[in-house]
Amino acid sequence: MQPAFLDGKAKGLFIDGRSCPALSGKTFDTVSPRNGEVLAPVAQAAREDVDLAVAAARRALEGEWSRFKPFDRQAVMLKLADLVERHYDELALLDTLDMGGPIARTTLGRRRAVGLLRYYAGLATTIQGDTIPNSAPGEHFCYTLKEPVGVVGAINPWNGPIGLAIWKLCPVLASGCTLVLKPAEQAPLSPLLLAELAMEAGLPAGVFNVITGFGDAGAALAEHAGVDKIAFTGSTEVGQKIVRAAAGNMKRMSMELGGKSPDIVFADADLDAAVPGAAMAVFQNSGQICSAGTRLFVQRPVYEDFVQRVAAFAKTLKVGDPLDPATQLGPVVSAEQLQRISGYLQLGREQGARAVAGGQRLTEGALARGYFVAPTVFADVRDDMRIAREEIFGPVLSALPFDTLDEVVTRANDSSYGLGSGVWSRSVDTIHRVAQRLRTGTVWANCYQVMDPAIPFGGYKMSGFGRESGIEHVREYVQTKAVVLKLG
After folding, report:
1. Which of the residues 185, 196, 223, 256 is marked catalytic?
2. Within 13 Å of residue 368, how many CA atoms lie on the same side as its CB?
C-alpha cells in the first residue's frame, strides 16, 4: 500500500500557505519502523525557517484571519472536518508507515479526529466575555473581552501524529489564533498533509504552518520572541527545557508531559473485564502512550492469578507488520527507542523482577528488519525499581501487590508523575474514595484510556499543566481584557 502523498518527491516545510524547501536546502529521511526503509526525504528547518513561519503566522493573525467572524471560523473547521473524514484512510496509512501504529488502530482514529474538529467548531461560537457589576466610586460600565492569545507554537511527539496535530490545531482555529506546528522528526508526514487539507478548507495563508526538523527547530520556536504561547506534548525532560527557553518573553504555556500511571485492581473487581483492560492500558500503541497504566497494583488475594492471566493475554496478542489488519501491536517508533526499551528489559531482570511474559526483542522472519518488542509483564516488582519509577514508553508492565486501600493510594501517589490512573472494583464507594485521593489528571474507573473531545485531559506534578479537550482547552488560547467606561 502506498499513499498518494508519497509521490517520490521531497516533502517541504509548509509556510504561508505553500510547501517550500528549507532555506539551507537540507533534508532528512523519515524511516518506517516496520522495515527500516526510507519513506521520503523531508525538509530540515533551521532558525531562519522558524523566523519565516512565525512571521507568516503574525501576518495572518493581524490580517484576513482577524476579520473572520466566529461563524466563519466554525464554517472552515467543519469543512476541514469533512476533508479529514474524506482523506482519513490516507492519513491513517501515513501514520502506520511513519510511526508503526497498526493499521487496525490508526484507522480507528477517524471518529476522534473528525469529532475533535466538529466539537471545537461548535466552541468557536461560544467564546464570550462578561458584564461586571462593580463598586468603583462613581458610575462605570465594565465588561470583558476574550481575545486570541496570538501566535501559537506547538511541538508534538511521534506517538499519534495526525491525532495530536488536530488536537493542537482545533483550539487555535476556534479561538482565532494562528499556529506554527513542529511535529516530531520521526513522524512528520500526516501533519504536512493536514496543512494542505486546511488550505483546501479555506484557511487564509499563514494561519497554519508546519516546520519539520529536529530539536534545534523546536528550541528556536520555543524561545522565539514572536511566539505568544507554546503548547507542548512530550517528555518531562524536554518540557523543562521548553519552559526555560520560553521565559524570554513570558509566553503562555501548556504542557502535557510524561507519566508512570498507576492502574489499581481490587480483589472484588470483575477480573474478566480487568484482565484485557489492564493489559491494553499498557500494550495499546506498543506502550507508546504517556498515560499508559504501566504500574499495575493488584490486591494480594488475587495477585498471582491475575498477573498470570494478564501474562497469558499478552502472549495472545499478534505482534507484526502494522499493515496487516490482524496485527494488534506494531513496532516501536525507532531504533533509538528500541534500544531504550531493551535497556529497561535488562535492567528489570538485574534488579530482581521476573518476566512472566515477553521480555525480549522479536526478530523472527520479517520482524528482524523492524523494531519489534514482545509485550512484557514483569512480576516481583518493587516500588523502588527503576522499571516501576521511570517512564519506559514501551510495551512493559510492572505488576505490584498491595493489601489495603490506604496503602495503595499512598504508593500510587509516590511518583513525580500524575497524568492518568485506573481503578477496577465493583464497589462504587471504593472507586469514589480512590478517585478523590489520587493525584492524577484523569482517573478511569473500570475502563482505561477512554477519551472524548469534551473531557479535559492533562497532568498533575511533573506530568505538566494546562488541559486539552473540553471547554477548558479553548480558554488556554484566549486572554481577558477588561474595559471600564465612566458614565456621565
Report:
1. 256
2. 3
Give yes or no: 290 in active site. yes
Kindly state the DSSP code that residue 43 receives in the 8-state scheme.
E
Q: Which ranges of the chain have pLDDT less than 50? A: none
In the chain, where are the structural domains located?
13-257+464-483, 262-453
- Which tens digits make up the pLDDT trace of 8-29? 999 999 999 999 999 999 999 9
Cβ count near 1 (within 10 Å): 9
- Res 412: pLDDT: 98
Residues 6+ apart with CB under 8 A from 151: 54, 57, 58, 61, 177, 178, 179, 180, 226, 227, 228, 229
DSSP H helical segments within 102-224, as ranges? 103-106, 110-123, 161-175, 189-201, 215-223
Q: How far apart are CA 262 and CA 240, in angstroms?
A: 23
Assess whether 200 carries a catalytic annotation. no
3.20.20.70, 3.40.309.10, 3.40.50.1370, 3.40.50.300: CATH of 262-453:
3.40.309.10
Phi-psi region for residue 222, left (φ > 0), alpha (ψ -120 to 50) or beta? alpha
Q: Look at residues 255, 124, 116 and name the one whose alpha carbon lies nearest to residue 194.
A: 116
Give residue-wise pLDDT tens across range 79-132.
999 999 999 999 999 999 999 999 999 999 999 999 999 999 999 999 999 999
| DSSP conformation class of 366 | G
The catalytic residue among 290, 391, 468, 476 is 290
Which CATH code is given to the segment(s) 13-257+464-483? 3.40.605.10
Q: Which residues, other chains included, contact 449 with Cβ-Cβ below 8 Å and sequence gap of 6+?
A: 280, 281, 284, 289, 291, 420
**In sequence order, what are the residues at sequence separation of 6 or more whose Cβ sits closer than 8 angstroms to the Cβ of residue 320?**
326, 327, 329, 330, 366, 367, 372
| Cα 254 to Cα 260: distance, rounded to the nearest angstrom | 19
DSSP summary character for residue 87: T
Residue 62 CA to its chain's centroid (Å):
29
Instruction: Summarize pLDDT for 357-406 with one digit per residue, the tens.
Output: 999 999 999 899 999 999 999 999 999 999 999 999 999 999 999 999 99
pTM of the model: 0.95
Residue 211's closest CA among 203, 202, 222, 201? 222
Q: How far apart are CA 121 and CA 199, in angstroms?
A: 16
